C-alpha cells in the first residue's frame, strides 16, 4: 500500500489560469495542464529566485519531491511553447496557505 500523499503548501493562487497562443482558435488547440503545486514550484524557483532547498521547505516537502514537481512543470511549459499548446492551471494535491487567510487557517484544494 503506497504512502499517503502530503498536501503541498501553496502561498499564491494565480489570477489567470489559462494561456494560449494568439491566433489559434480554441477549437483547434491542444493544451497541457499544470497543477497548482507545479505552478507554485515554478513561482518559487524561477520568479522568486529561491534555491530548491528553501523552496521545498516553503512548500512543506522534501527537496527531491520539489525537484520532481519542478521538472514536471518545466517539461509541460516547454511542450506548450515549442508545440503551440495552451496552458491550463488547475488541480493538484495542495493546501492553500496564502495571505489574507490569517495565521493557522488553511484553504484546501485537492
Number of helices: 3
Domain tally: 1
| Protein structure class | alpha/beta
Order of helices and strands: EEEHHHEEE
Q: Characterize the overall form.
A: elongated
Helical amount: 25-40%
Main beta sheet: 3 strands, mixed
Low-confidence segments: 100-110
Give the oligomeric state: single chain
Q: What is the CATH level 1 assignment?
A: Mainly Alpha
In percent terms, what proportion of residues is strand?
A: 15-25%
How far apart the termini lie comes to 20 Å
* Secondary structure: number of strands: 6
CATH fold type: Arc Repressor Mutant, subunit A
Any idea what the CATH architecture is? Orthogonal Bundle
The radius of gyration computed from the alpha-carbon positions, rounded to a whole number of angstroms, is 15 Å
Write down the overall mean pLDDT. 86
Strand order of the largest sheet: 1-5-6
Q: If you had to describe this structure to a student in words, what would you say it looks like?
A:
With 110 residues, the chain is α/β, with parallel strands linked by helices. It has one domain: Arc Repressor Mutant, subunit A. Helix content is 37%, strand content 17%. It has three helices and six strands, in the order βββαααβββ. The strands form two sheets. A three-stranded mixed β-sheet has the order 1-5-6, with helices on one face. Strands 2-4-3 form a three-stranded mixed β-sheet. α1 (36-47) crosses α3 and α2 (52-59) packs across α3. The radius of gyration is 15 Å and the shape is elongated. Mean pLDDT is 86; it is low at 100-110.
Amino acid at each position: 500500500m503506497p504512502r499517503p500523499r502530503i498536501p503541498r503548501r501553496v502561498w499564491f493562487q494565480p489570477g489567470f489560469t489559462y494561456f494560449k497562443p494568439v491566433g489559434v482558435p480554441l477549437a483547434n488547440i491542444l493544451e497541457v495542464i499544470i497543477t497548482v503545486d507545479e505552478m507554485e514550484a515554478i513561482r518559487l524557483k524561477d520568479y522568486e529566485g529561491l534555491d530548491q532547498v528553501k523552496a521545498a521547505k516553503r512548500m512543506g516537502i522534501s527537496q527531491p519531491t520539489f525537484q520532481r514537481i519542478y521538472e514536471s512543470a518545466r517539461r509541460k511549459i516547454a511542450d506548450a511553447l515549442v508545440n503551440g499548446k495552451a496552458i491550463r492551471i488547475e488541480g493538484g494535491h495542495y493546501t492553500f496557505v496564502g495571505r489574507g487567510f490569517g495565521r493557522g487557517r488553511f484553504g484546501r484544494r485537492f
